[in-house]
Amino acid sequence: MTTTGRGIRTRLLTAIILMGAGAPAPVAHGQGAPPGKPGADTPPLLRDMVGAWDVRQQMWFAPDTKVIDLPRAVARRRLIEGSYLEETMTLAEKSERGSFTRVAYLNLNTVSQRYEYFSLDSRAPQQMRYESDKPGKGGSGEVRLKGGTFVAAQWGEAKNVEFKYRLTLGEVQKDQQVVRLYLTPQSEGAKEFLAFEYVYTRQR
User: Fold this and answer.
1) What angle do CA 44, 39, 121 make, to 5 degrees?
2) Pick from 60, 31, 36: which is nearest to 49 by CA?
3) Is 43 within the bounds of a domain?
4) Which one-letter DSSP state was computed for residue 173?
5) What is the CA radius of gyration of the chain?
6) How far apart, in whole angstroms, are the C-alpha atoms of residue 131 and residue 184?
7) Has residue 17 been placed in a domain?
8) CA-to-CA distance for 98 and 30, rounded, in angstroms?
9) Strands 73-80 and 51-59
10) Beta carbons within 10 angstroms of residue 127's beta carbon
């Protein structure tokens, strides 16, 4: 083999090795777990969240304001390849008024060891992205996720209100979980407040 030929072969082998090193190993996907089935590496929190849930929704427009009860909803959560959770939420009963679809995804990034969360709601179609403020340990305790900012086209009587947001995912206990969304208006002197609370109860 010529020197040129050996050089090309060496570069090809190097490229193949680097590509292989960058590719996720099968264990990173729940050790080959089929769709909807947890694998050995599926974080306990994700395993606990799988299933069909009844959801009570409540909201607040500002600190110390009266709570507003929103229509009951149902959420269906499933694992994808044993590695991340997909949630679809809709109204519990069919209704032309107030119907919505909310889709969310949750995973534990195996590189950064931080939880990542993404949601999109037809009631206010803006992408909401979050990341846990501390590396996750794969446990089932409460997870705190930091978000960015978004603009609400209508918030109470105000228009185009900018907020900073964050989310907490409570631990699943006795077939119940509480998810809370906190908002901070981006105006001088404004304080953070609980804006939405979702209480999940597993269907039997």
Assistant:
1) 60
2) 36
3) yes
4) B
5) 22
6) 17
7) no
8) 38
9) antiparallel
10) 10
Pair of tokens at residue 113: 């060891």
Q: Is 48 helix (H, G, I), strand (E, B) or coil?
A: helix
Please enumerate in sequence order all residues whose Cβ is within 8 A of that of 84, keeping only pairs 6 or more positions apart, or say none: 46, 105, 106, 107
Q: Indicate the pTM of the whole model.
A: 0.78
Smallest CA-to-CA distance from 176 within 90, 88, 49 is with 49
- Give the contacts of 93 (CB within 8 A, at least 6 positions apart): 71, 72
Nearest CA to 145 out of 192, 182, 174, 111 is that of 182
Write the pLDDT tens digit of every residue in 57-87. 999 999 989 999 999 999 999 999 888 999 9
Query: Does residue 69 belong to any structural domain of this protein?
Result: yes
Please tell me the total count of domains within the chain: 1
Q: How far apart are CA 47 and CA 182, in angstroms?
A: 25
Q: What is the CATH number of the domain that holds 177?
A: 2.40.128.20
Q: By CB neighbour count within 10 A (0-12 exposed, 13-18 middle, 19+ buried), where does 13 fall?
A: exposed
Mean pLDDT, rounded, for 123-134: 89
Distance CA 11, CA 4 (A): 11
